[in-house]
TrEMBL record:
PANTHER family: CYCLIC NUCLEOTIDE PHOSPHODIESTERASE CBUA0032-RELATED (PTHR42988:SF2), PHOSPHOHYDROLASE (PTHR42988). One of its GO terms (molecular function) is hydrolase activity. Transmembrane segments: none annotated. The keyword Transferase does not apply. This is Phosphohydrolase. It comes from Thermococcus piezophilus. Belongs to the cyclic nucleotide phosphodiesterase class-III family. Pfam families: Metallophos (PF00149). Keywords: Hydrolase, Iron, Metal-binding. The keyword Metal-binding applies. Residues 2-185, 276-434 form the Calcineurin-like phosphoesterase domain.
Amino acid sequence: MIRIAHISDTHITSESAYKGYAYDLIVSEINRGNFDFVIHTGDVTNQGLREEYERAAYELKKIQKPLVVIPGNHDVRNVGYELFQKFIGPLNGVFEFENGVVIWVDSTIPDLSDGRVGGYKFKWLKAKLEEYSKREFKIIAAHHHIVPLPDTGRERNVLFNAGDVLDLMLRHEVSLYTCGHKHVPNVYRVEDMVVDNAGCTSCRKTRKGDVNSYNIITLHDDGRIEVTIKRVTGERAKKEREPVRPKIFVPKEKRLFRIVQLSESNVSDRVYFRRKVLENAIRTINERIKPDLVIHCGDIVDMGIERYYEKAYEFYEKIKAQKLVVPGHNDITYLGYDLFREYFGDPNILEIGRFTFIPVISAQYETPIGVVGRIGQRIIAKHLEEYRETFTVVVMHHNIVPIPRSRERGFLEDAGDVLRMLTREKANLVLTGHGGNSFGIKVENTPIVNASSVSWELHRNPYGNTFNLIDIYRDLMVVFEVQATWGSGRLLGMWKIKEPFNP
Ligand SMILES: [Fe+2]
Ligand SMILES: [Fe+2]
């Protein structure tokens, strides 16, 4: 068993101003506890100044355990990354222990609060993950968060290439991603990986009137990982993860439901719109796939003008199956808000047998950034509660988890709170369609599937224009991505279905 103390965001200032009460309390607790080592995920200092680093070096020496320290955005202010290396240590590195490894990455960008794991560093990280692939516990530590966090206000300061980093970690079976930055303690399970955010160990900028805290990570010999959020008030919150192996499932009984999920048709007369590809896709859907429901996750037209809506309507009229269309930000440009309703109707809750589809309007005028809002979140939560006995599918345009190959900018303002609400209320499936690439991951018990563009040339999918095919069985859900031109498929994800859905 390995026990790690995870501290973060100490924001140490120069001697006169620094109030180290919480810090001293937590450090003495750590020194008394049986920890194997300590990880500090950045913002050691407040402004990256020399006197702060001098003070920080003194404060960090109080920790009587092996210590891994990662730079945060505050540490690299005022070219503080030079001082970090002088007073604290290397910006990137590897810490080996018994049956595991911590690979730490400097995710900062000088003078910005946002994060990045740039090209060369990304390659370095990949090489390290390959080098240490045999280790039982692979831990990646960085400053910036990887999935949206609740209770942080507007979703921002994310890792620009969060989607790529997340994808890389899942492919290499990373056991734990550990970070800080937003001053909110939180633990998520993303697929088989634990995402552990530390709160703020010793500065006053906590959220929602919270107190200072640190996280306790326990790596058990049988592969279990336990994370406990320990507040200075003594309050504890515990989360546990057990690895699922093997990951090959076989469905019991026959298929219950088949969904086709499309997005970003962007019907228009622009050269980027591939009419033939869309026609092909619709033919494949009608003749070969024969779904129970077709869902279009936004941007059915490229611009909200009548001519484009007329065309889009003509295409989608040809689909024989029942349809559910939610608007994206392109759909509501110009007169699109009204045209969308005229041609496709107001998206409403759809009940089909034991399945409930809950459309969410997240698009805003003239911006690719979406929002659900606090009232919207409450309404969706109520619907999820109301339809708990059925299989609930939440449908919206904006992605709530980062998408590989796209630059993450926080496409849903309140992604952190929305993600918490959807996972807390145990939505059975969430379908999104922004970012131009397909991606499917499970956060807590909720699979989240993003559709790529079906017929727009400007996409980010190496597989080309695609749509998703989702088959639901009693105990299992399988998601394929179907190439829109060739009709060939590849597996995007496969997840077990747990209670309470049980038809
Ligand atoms: Fe911070
Ligand atoms: Fe930070």
